[in-house]
């Protein structure tokens, strides 16, 4: 396969993934964000393989499986730790981009920890997505995956605008010791009571 065709396929798959990323950033529910990002991870992981960014491909592949576990409710503490460690170790093993690949592995581990944590909300996830978009954008540009690099720049901007518009309230979604999932259940109960 020619380099041109390989990079074209990488850019098309990454373009689909980036569109899904933009959709996920606009979501207000953590669960919906994770669901959309699961499909994003599949597209982007495959695109990264074509772009020969193997550390990135591994991160998105493990993230896809991890997100499925989160969505199914199979995210007990040992499972959470396993996926963060798996992505980190495999990222180091398959890193073929030096310090830039290492940066991707580290930010992916931070995002993984945030997704599986009970103490994050959409606001904190958007901050992590913003930082992650910056790191991935530089990585993708180096791989000539320009569609994904541009998508990451747009994701960065969207997350930044969201954070600037929603500065009020607790940044991490809860007062000290309060579980945001409890707050989400209360909001759902209030919504269902109002609908009756």
Describe the structure.
The chain is mainly alpha-helical. 81% of the residues lie in helices and 0% in strands. The chain contains eight helices and no strands. It has helices at 3-26, 30-51, 54-72, 77-94, 98-116, 122-142, 146-165, 180-195. Helix 5 (98-116) packs antiparallel against helix 6 (122-142). The longest helix is centred in the N-terminal third of the chain and has 24 residues, at 3-26. It starts with a helix and ends with a helix.
Q: H/E element string?
A: HHHHHHHH
Number of strands: 0
Mean pLDDT: 85
Q: How large, in whole angstroms, is the Cα Rg?
A: 17 Å
Q: What is the helix content?
A: over 70%
Largest sheet: none
Q: What count of helical segments does DSSP give?
A: 8
Write the layout of secondary structure elements.
Layout (H helix, E strand, L loop, with lengths): L2 H24 L3 H22 L2 H19 L4 H18 L3 H19 L5 H21 L3 H20 L14 H16 L1
Keywords:
196 residues; mainly alpha; 8 helices; 81% helix; globular
Give a brief rundown of this model.
This protein has 196 residues and is an all-alpha fold. The chain is built from 8 helices and no strands. It has helices at residues 3-26, 30-51, 54-72, 77-94, 98-116, 122-142, 146-165, 180-195.
